[in-house]
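ARCHIVE CARD
Drawer: 12
Card no.: 0347
Subject: one protein chain, sequence and derived structure
Cross-reference: see card 0346
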Amino acid sequence: MKSYWLNIPVKDVQASKAFFSGIGLETRDGQDPEQLASVHMGSMVFCLFRNDVLSSFIQAPISDTSTGNEMIVSFDLSTKEEVDTLCEKIEEHGGKVLAGPSVMNGYYGCLFTDLDGHKYNVIVM
């Protein structure tokens, strides 16, 4: 295997791209910016696909994040201050901090959702 990435369904690719850019992550447009963009965190990449495009590809409906989640994306930052700053940016750009920033399970971090309700866990390791 050479590499891997996550494909995340979103209602509005450009709004989601703006959210992730706003919280400090590198983003890039795909071939059709209304259907696809990518977010880069270190060597990790995840793709933001418009809901109907991803649903068509997987031949299944997209899960409703208001009633459940299939996964959580986790990543680490270097300092508590970076987590605190990230939490401020999340709320400023339309996301929601669900827990933290605080010590949880022995790690300083936070739990948040993006514009579409997907959950992310950030900790200092």
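Annotation on reverse: Residues 75 and 117 are 17 Å apart (CA to CA). The mean pLDDT is 93.
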